[in-house]
Structures are given as C-alpha cells and as structure tokens.
Design brief:
The protein is α/β, with parallel strands linked by helices. Helices cover 46% and strands 14% of the residues. The protein has 8 helices and 7 strands, in the order βαβαβαβαβαβαααβ. It has helices spanning 18-29, 41-53, 68-78, 103-131, 152-171, 190-203, 209-219, 231-242, and strands at 9-12, 33-38, 58-62, 85-88, 134-139, 177-184, 253-256. A 7-stranded parallel sheet has the order 3-2-1-4-5-6-7, with helices on both faces. Strand 5, helix 5 and strand 6 (177-184) form a beta-alpha-beta unit. The radius of gyration is 18 Å and the shape is globular.
Length: 265
C-alpha cells in the first residue's frame, strides 16, 4: 500500500534510539523527509547516516526539553516551509510508585512528557493550519487508561497525552489536521531488553531472550498475543496514522499492545 507520504516533512521527537528511531526510519522509508531529534549528537548522526544510506531524506535538530523552541526552529528550517507531521515521542518512563517519587519529581516528569508536547504543538501546528494539512501523533501508553501502581507519575502523564490528543483534535476541527494517540504495550526496546537481562541476573539464570520474554509476559503484561511487541509494529501504526489514507481517524487512541489492556476503550 502506498501511504502517500512522498513530499511530507516529519519531526519525530526523541528519535535517536528505541521507538523514535524505528518511527523515523519507517517514515523515511515511506518517502517522508524526516527530522531526527534528541540530546545526543553522536546518536542523531548515526540515525541520520543510516537513513541516508537507505536512500532517505533526513536532517537533525538537537536539544533537550529546555531548548524545545530552538529545536522546533531547526526542524522547521530543515527542509523549508515547515513540518507536516509531528510525532510527540520523546519522554521519560521511570519506575516509581506513589511514595517513591517526590512532588518535585512528579512535576519534572510532567514537564518532560506533557509540557514538552505543548511547546512542540504551539511551535509547529500554526504552520500546518496555514497550509491546510497536518498530522499530530502522541505516543502515549496502555497505562494511560490502565494505570499501574509501580509507575504512578508516568501513568498520569500518559493519561494527559490521551486527553491532549482528543482536545487538540477538537480545537483543530475542519483545518485539515488530524490528531491521534498510539498507546503501546510493552515493546522490546533496548531499555526493555536491559530490564530482561537484569531480571535474569536477579533470578540467577543464564540470559535467554525468548525465555525471559515469556517470563515477562506471564508476570508483567499477560496478553492474548502471548509476547512483547516490537518497535517496528509501533512505527507501522504511526506511518499509517500520519498518512493521507488515515484522514477519517481523528481524536482516537489506537492501542498496539497485543491485547494487554483488558477493556473495550
């Protein structure tokens, strides 16, 4: 299927590794010009070089959340004429319960996972409105609707991302811009792989990737699919929502979690 992304310009925040990297590479493979964003120049250059080697068009915008305005400026200038697709992927996901995180840490995480997206939207969406077309996609999480006590502050920020997607979709009614959220389940990123290796070490057993995945599914994310997701599966969902073919999907939350969240909505 041709997703009709040729000529579109995308910014994927937090795209120097993990989910963001997979999303950026997939959008580039579908023909979009992609801006890689992150804090590490070395990692950003690696991703850019790999996309170029595969024939993609790519640029780079560096900076942490404190430099969001400058990163947005760099992104808009990268290919001329602004950004058509904004994927709000950057964020942190600490594991701490209600009594481990301080109020200051809650506030810091809210700034990283929620206010950072507000800054990106306010910087980039006005240009989409002027051009009459755009896509905004929030990478949320299953814990946004099915919170876990061990990730209390993170779950709150992901619930906020879902609220943002619906609210912004309504605010941009009849502008040619759609806004949606994707809620991944557990995905086998480098961070999750490191966690599985830590589990094996803690249990005193040799690390076997397939075996540790089974254990993690059974103890942490039981789901009908019986496995952990892969970054490419999230990237493919993003690419579809970013495309003109998804123009009637708006204000939605798409769960890509193997059926982990045991509810209809």
């Amino acid at each position: 299927m041709d997703l009709q992304l040729q000529g579109k310009r995308a910014l994927v925040t937090g795209s120097t590794s993990g989910l963001g990297e997979a999303i950026a590479k997939t959008l580039a493979a579908e023909g979009a010009a992609v801006v890689i964003h992150g804090r590490s120049e070395a990692s950003a250059r690696r991703v850019c070089e790999e996309i170029r080697a595969a024939g993609g068009k790519v640029a780079m915008a560096l900076g942490d959340d404190a430099q969001a305005a400058e990163a947005s400026r760099q992104a808009q200038a990268a290919f001329g004429g602004g950004i058509d697709i904004l994927v709000n992927n950057a964020g942190a996901y600490p594991e701490r319960d209600w009594f481990q995180g301080t109020p200051a840490q809650w506030g810091e995480l809210y700034n990283q996972n929620v206010l950072s997206t507000v800054r990106a939207v306010q910087a980039l969406v006005p240009g989409m409105k002027e051009r009459g077309w755009g896509r905004v996609i929030f990478i949320a999480s299953g814990v946004g609707t099915w919170p876990m006590p061990g990730m209390a502050d993170y779950a709150v920020t992901k619930a906020a991302n879902l609220n943002q997607a619906v609210s912004l979709a309504k605010a941009l009614a009849a502008t040619g811009i759609t806004v949606n959220a994707i809620s991944p389940g557990m995905i086998l990123t480098p961070g999750i792989e490191a966690m599985l290796k830590g589990m094996a070490k803690q249990e005193g057993i040799p690390y076997d990737a397939a075996e540790m995945e089974k254990r993690a599914v059974a103890s942490m994310v039981p789901n009908p699919t019986g496995r952990i997701g892969r970054p490419q599966e999230i990237a493919d969902a993003v690419a579809f929502l970013a495309s003109p073919r998804a123009s009637y999907i708006n204000g939605a939350n798409l769960r890509v979690d193997g059926g982990t969240v045991p509810t209809v909505n």
